[in-house]
Q: What sequence folds into this?
């Protein structure tokens, strides 16, 4: 299967991330959570399509936190909130791959697999919202007939659609980490405090596991 790569083309603006909007009060693996993004660009042989993911992280137990397969949550056991609360994570997947509704439903399901790679197990108190849409086809406003572009299920499109699935899983996993790293320690109502994931200690744990230079 073709390997997808992180998006490297410049963007005109950088969206706000971390403790912004609905992400202000979010908890993620008992650290401060919030809004995170990540994307992947498929190689030319897989259509060169882009898959972008936006998450609002509000899930996870500290001991379950995985980053790049490393059990980071088991190594950073302090900086805990006074209370652990269960919430729901929202994931929105956007792609310019010309997918139809039943294919996009499958893409949304792969976002749940991306959450799982980071340590989420969708606890009984969670109600994850997973959405996916395609920007490939624009319906003419004049009502004239048009022929939409579609990646039909079949041998020719099998590998391309699988690459979209893989990109969705990777970008969702990374978007959660992005939300953690973009957030800052926040004190809210009644003095309740959610601590940011300490980057220096995270890097130390990853180095010890051989993940960083």
A:
């Amino acid at each position: 299967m073709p390997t997808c790569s992180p998006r490297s083309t410049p963007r005109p603006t950088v969206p706000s991330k971390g403790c912004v909007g609905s992400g202000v009060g979010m908890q993620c693996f008992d650290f401060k959570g919030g809004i995170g993004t990540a994307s992947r660009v498929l190689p030319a042989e897989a259509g060169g399509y882009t898959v972008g993911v936006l998450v609002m992280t509000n899930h996870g137990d500290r001991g379950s936190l995985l980053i790049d397969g490393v059990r980071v949550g088991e190594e950073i056991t302090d900086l805990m909130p006074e209370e652990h609360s269960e919430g729901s994570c929202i994931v929105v997947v956007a792609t310019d791959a010309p997918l139809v509704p039943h294919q996009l439903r499958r893409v949304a399901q792969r976002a749940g697999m991306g959450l799982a790679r980071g340590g989420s197990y969708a606890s009984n108190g969670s109600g994850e919202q997973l959405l996916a849409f395609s920007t490939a086809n624009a319906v003419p406003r004049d009502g004239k007939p048009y022929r939409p572009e579609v990646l039909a299920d079949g041998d020719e499109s099998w590998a391309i659609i699988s690459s979209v699935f893989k990109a969705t899983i990777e970008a969702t996993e990374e978007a959660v980490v992005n939300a953690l790293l973009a957030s800052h320690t926040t004190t809210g109502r009644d003095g309740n405090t959610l601590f940011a994931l300490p980057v220096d200690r995270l890097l130390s744990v990853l180095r010890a596991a051989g993940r960083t230079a």
Observations:
- The beta strands are 5-6, 27-28, 31-32, 35-41, 50-56, 90-95, 129-134, 186-187, 193-194.
- The domain at 5-208 is CATH 3.60.70.12 (L-amino peptidase D-ALA esterase/amidase).
